[in-house]
Amino acid sequence: KYLFMLFSFPSPMFLGIGQMAATILILYVSKLNKIVHFPDFDKSIPVKLFPLPLIYVGNHISGLSSTSKLSLPMFTVLRKFTIPLTLLLEIIILGKRYPLSIIVSVFAILLGAFIAAGSDLSFNLEGYTVVLLNDLFTAANGVYTKQKIDPKELGKYGVLFYNACFMVVPTVIISFSTGDFHQVRSNMPYLRLVMVF
C-alpha cells in the first residue's frame, strides 16, 4: 500500500514477482540452515499441489492490485466477503455442514460489509471487482489446501515454497508479454525503490 499510494508504483504484478522471488530465496536459505523443514522436490509434488499454484498467483496479484485501487478502510471492509465465500466453497467442495447459528453470523458480517460499502463515496468498480476476485481466490486457496494437502507431507512452508517456484516464471512471462515489465523499466526510480524494499 505504501508503494502504491506514496510512490504511485505502476505494477502490482512486478511487485508480486519480487515477493515470490523473496519467498523462494528466504525459504530455500532457511531450509539449508535447518530453520524450516519441507521435502525436496519430486515428481509427485506438482500433482499434489494442483490447482493451488494457479490459485496462489491469482490471490497474490489480485490482492496487490486491489490494495493499489482502493482505500485501506474499504479494502478491509470488502475483504470480509472472504468469510461467506469460504463457507460456501467448504459446503460445495468439502461437503461440510454448518449449524444455522454460524450461517446467520456469517450473513450478519456480510450485511455489515454491504452497509459499509454502500457509504463509499469514491466507488471504484475496477477496485471492487479485483478485491472480490481476491476474496474468491483466498477462499479457494483455503478450501483446496484443506482438501489436497496433508500438512505432514509438505507443511505450510513447502506449500509456500513450491507455489512460488511453480508460478514465478509464468508470472514473469506474463509481465513481459503484457508490457507490464516495460512499464516498470521505463520508471527506473520505482525499480530501484523495489530493490531497496
Mean pLDDT: 79
Low-confidence parts, pLDDT < 50 over ≥5 residues? none
Tally of individual helices: 11
Ends apart, CA distance between termini: 13 Å
Shape: flat
Number of strands: 0
Q: Could you say which structural class the secondary elements and strand pairing correspond to?
A: mainly alpha
Beta-strand proportion: under 5%
Radius of gyration, CA atoms, in whole angstroms: 19 Å
The biggest beta sheet reads: none
Order of helices and strands: HHHHHHHHHHH
Helix content: over 70%
Structure summarized in a few sentences:
With 197 residues, this protein is mostly helical. It is 77% helix and 0% strand.
Polypeptide structure, described:
The protein is mainly α. The protein is 77% helix and 0% strand. The protein has 11 helices and no strands. Helix 6 packs parallel to helix 8. The longest helix is centred in the last third of the chain and has 24 residues. 31% of the residues are buried. The mean pLDDT is 79.
Secondary structure elements and pairings:
Elements (H helix, E strand, L loop, with lengths): L1 H6 L4 H21 L11 H6 L2 H18 L2 H7 L3 H12 L6 H19 L6 H24 L6 H23 L2 H6 L2 H9 L1
GO cellular component, one term: membrane
Subcellular location: Membrane
Keywords: Membrane, Transmembrane, Transmembrane helix
Keywords:
flat; 0% strand; 11 helices; 197 residues
